[in-house]
Design a protein that fits this description.
102 residues; five-stranded mixed sheet; 27% strand
């Protein structure tokens, strides 16, 4: 399989220390060379930013697979819980009130 990084994933990867960048890249090459890379992945229950994730050390790598290509969408430190991740995006709960979008 081929590995493709989105612009966001590339920025996130570049912001990490060099040893962590190398660890993630090496592990992604390992996964891409497997016959069934999804056996190492977890399907996300609510795939809002990607359908699967790999856990690499202290990071979650969120990705989708299209054909024979793995599209890396982002990498997130595992110390962040999914709740913190969602709150960090500052979501707006509308409850039918479109005026909250201002």
């Amino acid at each position: 399989m081929e590995i493709h990084y989105t612009h966001k994933a590339t920025e996130q990867l570049e912001s990490l220390s060099n040893p962590i960048q190398k660890r993630i890249a090496k592990k992604m090459r390992f996964y891409a060379n497997q016959k069934e890379p999804l056996r190492f992945a977890k399907r996300l229950a609510e795939p809002r930013g990607g359908e699967f994730r790999f856990r690499i050390g202290d990071y979650r790598v969120i990705f989708d697979i299209i054909g024979k290509k793995i599209f890396i969408l982002n990498s997130i430190p595992s110390e962040l819980s999914y709740k913190e991740e969602i709150l960090g995006m500052q979501p707006i709960v509308l409850h039918g009130d479109i005026l909250k979008l201002q």
